[in-house]
Design a protein that fits this description.
Rossmann fold; 2 domains
């Protein structure tokens, strides 16, 4: 039997450390020459498989592959493309299996969030039915930190560090100007349904910064919120607000909802920060500034968490090891052994228990008033954001990020309409 090749793809919103997982997969596979063949990467994620646009990573230098560990974003391109259900469009899955068969691919490493876990699970099921078994392994990635079973998701810790530090620095700025100028600073962060990123803003309390955190897990009460802001400004002279994009009214409507939806069927949000800012302006009259962290929070490799980089790489490398051991239809997990000192190891969970399941913030992580975090939450967060893993810098002062050659292999099948 010939040695099987591998297919790796990045899915959904990219992160500061997703390329570290790619580096882990590719370097581990290269160390297993004779047991695993070429690692092909999908150009622009799973679309690369459907369109047979496969990047031959064996043509990339060892130096460039190693540089992925400190390069942000998705080096091979990602996509927001959700495969339909098997019942609605079995042809897409059959196309994937046909591509895998044509290129002798027996290992499928899908690096993404909840939707990619679902795709990975379905591919593993269908490949068995079609007589060309593919070992499908999901490598977790999501800044939202909302995948179940795993203690945390690679990508989250670096975003949490960036938000905590950025909000702290901005708060120092506002505090210095509050007497005669801005009294409220509002920072909008990612998190459609889970408030893990927003929770990082709660760490400002340890610097005696008056902060109000708005979580998706807590229904928004405008009167109560304005009263909390007013009280903090009157006591401290200023206030910082960290608002999750998923903050919503009691009826479930996002406070920033535009009434439109994206390709996944998710409501498109127009900006929670300006909505909150206008409430404060109209009700309290305070001078304010607001900012949306947006792509900055997930792309900030210059302020990545050391633990995040280590875990992202380790999960990628372990995925190859688990595949060679015969595992399939699993997601790798981070298992926390202790917080002080911080110790963790890598486990696995069946994809049947992962696909389409979201992990919200535990309510015992949120303070009783709904606007801060508890000691238990801080004990969870601090080990994740501890340590720095600065990228190397060029002589001109800019980071030494890498762009790959990304050479495609020749196509073997007819085109497929997406």
């Amino acid at each position: 039997m010939s040695v099987k090749n591998a297919f790796y793809a990045q899915s959904g919103g990219v992160t500061a450390v997703i390329n570290a997982s790619a580096c882990g997969v590719i370097e581990a596979a290269r160390q297993q020459a004779g047991k695993i063949g070429t690692v092909y990467a999908g150009q622009n994620g799973i679309i690369g498989a459907l369109s047979e646009e496969l990047i031959d990573t064996s043509l990339e230098s060892a130096e460039n592959i190693a540089a992925l560990k400190h390069t942000p974003s998705g080096a091979f391109g990602s996509c927001r493309f959700k495969l339909k259900s098997l019942e609605d469009n079995k042809a897409e899955y059959e196309r994937l299996i046909a591509i895998f068969k044509a290129h002798n691919i027996g290992y499928f490493f899908y690096n993404g969030g909840g939707d990619s876990a679902d795709t990975c699970y379905k591919v593993s099921q269908l490949s068995e039915e079609m007589g060309f078994p593919v070992q499908a392994i999901h490598i977790p990635k999501t800044v939202d930190n909302d995948l179940p079973i795993t203690d945390n998701c690679p990508g989250f810790a670096s975003v949490a560090k960036y938000i905590a530090v950025s909000a702290l620095e901005a708060s120092f700025d506002v505090r210095s100007m509050a007497k005669t100028s801005t009294k409220v600073f509002i920072l909008e962060v990612m998190g459609r349904h889970a408030g893990w990123i927003a929770a990082a803003g709660g760490l400002l309390e340890d610097y005696d910064i008056p902060v109000v955190v708005l979580f998706p897990e807590v229904e928004f009460n405008q009167d109560k919120f304005l009263a909390a802001v007013k009280a903090k400004v009157e006591q401290h002279g200023f206030c910082t607000i960290v608002v999750s994009e998923g903050t919503h009214w009691p009826d479930g409507r996002f406070i920033a909802e535009q009434g439109t939806r994206d390709s996944f069927g998710h409501a498109q949000l127009g900006g929670a920060a300006p909505v909150v800012a206008n409430m404060i302006k109209e009700a309290l009259g305070y001078k304010f500034h607001w900012a949306v962290a947006d792509y900055l929070q997930r792309a900030a490799r210059h302020l990545a968490s050391e633990a995040d980089v280590e875990q992202a790489y380790a999960l990628g490398a372990k995925a190859v090891e688990f595949a060679l051991e015969g595992h399939s239809s699993i997601m790798l997990t981070v298992e926390r052994e202790s917080s002080q000192p911080y110790r963790w190891n890598i486990g696995m969970a069946p994809l049947s228990e992962v696909a389409n399941v979201e992990k919200m913030m535990p309510m015992d992580y949120i303070s009783d008033d709904g606007y801060g975090i508890t000691t238990a939450c801080k004990e969870y967060l601090y080990p994740l954001i501890k340590g720095e893993a600065y990228p190397p810098y060029r002589e001109n002062g800019m980071p030494n990020y890498v762009t790959l050659e990304s050479q495609l292999v020749p196509k073997k099948l007819e085109p497929f309409d997406l």
